[in-house]
Amino acid sequence: MKLRPEQLAAALKKGPVPVYVVSGDEPLLVEEAAALIRHALREAGVAERQAFQAETGFKWAEWLASFDSLSLFAERRLIELRLPTGKPGVEGGKTLEAWAARPPADTWLLVLLPRLDRAGQNAKWFKALEAAGALVTVQPPTLEQLPAWIGERLGRHGLKAERETLAWLAARVEGNLLAAHQEVEKLALLLPPGPVKLEQAREAVVDVARYDASDLPEALLKGDATRYCRILDGLKAEGEAPPLAVWMLANEIRNLYRLASGQARGESLAGMYAELRIWESRQPLVGRALKQVNLAQLSQALRQVGLIDRAAKGLLREDAWELMKQLGLSLMGQRTVPLIAEVI
């Protein structure tokens, strides 16, 4: 049975199932789902909890056999099994299939996994566990969803913030969901129930946003100049080396150039999307960006990227971060930037 995180509490009230699987890459959300399951099982009289982590050398056969030999007087127990890689191997997969087929008496299993790819989700052991109980897949909120996520968390403490305040909070904790949770808890401690003013949030919240170079292309495609610059500034402040960011930016510009030149020759956009492996979820963003730039701009941008790459490697006495910022703003129509070669 598949459950969305928001459905888990109601499902637990109906009574526990033999197996729970929680899958996701966001530690805060995985732990919150696991905590709900633990609490519900304690309420149902499951008093004992044992935790295991399956890594290289894990003795699967012994692990399973130990639960088959429980005495008549053993307490009801919850067994937590963490699979850090999400891959139990051949022996582990067969062991989990055997558990799902015949769960030990008075024993409940909670499996904690990272987010699995399609192959992992189609594995026999994963399908068996899902069929034997409940699967909860957790995903962090997107940037667009983050203000509402923060607002919902504030509401649990009787706090209410206006849209501007929520947007400001989201910008300060982007990419760091645990920090977002901690800042909400801090506001709940500092403020009485009621409205949260922007000034109050500014006084209480530390800027703990974390950025990844992979966030750059999305900001560029969306034409979000503020976020694009904030990502570059954040990466630079965190001491990241620029080559990866340059590569991510160059790859996006190359794709746009290929699409724009193909369109000029009358090629099918759908065919080019398939060639470049631009998935359906990103195609509206890419299509929007194509309408904002022309082939000449993209050709110049590619030459610029080559020079930025040299600057990132220390071959030019230029700040690669600042040059990436200028190039992105130029493509977004925010300013006109000469080629580096023209200003050296």
Describe this structure in words.
The chain has 344 residues and is α/β, with parallel strands linked by helices. 58% of the residues lie in helices and 10% in strands. The radius of gyration is 25 Å and the shape is globular. The strands form 2 sheets. It has a 6-stranded parallel β-sheet, with helices on both faces. Strands 7-8 form a two-stranded parallel ribbon. The chain folds into 3 domains: 136 residues, 3-Layer(aba) Sandwich (Rossmann fold); 59 residues, Helicase, Ruva Protein, domain 3 (Orthogonal Bundle); 129 residues, Zinc Finger, Delta Prime, domain 3 (Up-down Bundle).
Shape summary = globular
Average pLDDT level: 87
Q: Which segments are poorly predicted (pLDDT under 50) over 5 or more consecutive residues?
A: 336-344
> Could you give the order of the helices and strands?
EHEHEHEHEHHEHEHHEHHHHHHHHH
Q: In the CATH scheme, what's the topology name of the largest domain?
A: Rossmann fold
Structural class: alpha/beta
Number of strand segments: 8
- Please report the distance between the alpha carbons of the first and last residues: 62 Å
Count of helical regions: 18
CATH superfamily membership of the largest domain, which one? P-loop containing nucleotide triphosphate hydrolases
- β-strand amount: 5-15%
Provide the CATH architecture of the largest domain: 3-Layer(aba) Sandwich
Whole-number total of structural domains: 3
Family: Belongs to the DNA polymerase HolA subunit family.
Keywords: DNA replication, DNA-directed DNA polymerase, Nucleotidyltransferase, Transferase
GO molecular function: DNA binding; DNA-directed DNA polymerase activity
Organism: Sulfuritortus calidifontis
